[in-house]
Amino acid sequence: MDTDDALWGALDRVAETPTLLVACAFDGALAPDEGDPDQARAEQVSSEALNVLVALADTTVAVVSDRAADEVAELMFLSGAKGGLRVVAPEGLPALRDEVGATALVGVGVAIAGASGDVIVGVGEDLGAGAPYEVEDVDDVADLLEELAGLRRRV
Q: What pTM was estimated for this model as a whole?
């Protein structure tokens, strides 16, 4: 991924928030949105970064999907952190944010109106429309999540 200094700066800033919610769309952000949807699997690097984030204090990770939670879990490479991962339908994301008391949100491939201080990232041509930040594909999402996990660990 070409380094997007503005995006990296925003991640650096948001990593220090007291209570972080990381919300990633499954289809198109964690798993390629091509071919048979029933065969879609999350990229392993993204899953590993989410495992790290789930294990961190004051950090909630949600996969945003209309799929059933057990189906999402089967399509991801999750370790013992599996129990900490939340799966929400797109319309449930604002309620989850309120429930966990998130002071900031990193939303990747999700359609949500972010608050001031949030980092909303579109993925690809279709999902990038209107998002303040954009990455090209699932490989770039993996890079972004790895960067965020590394930054959040240092907090």
A: 0.91
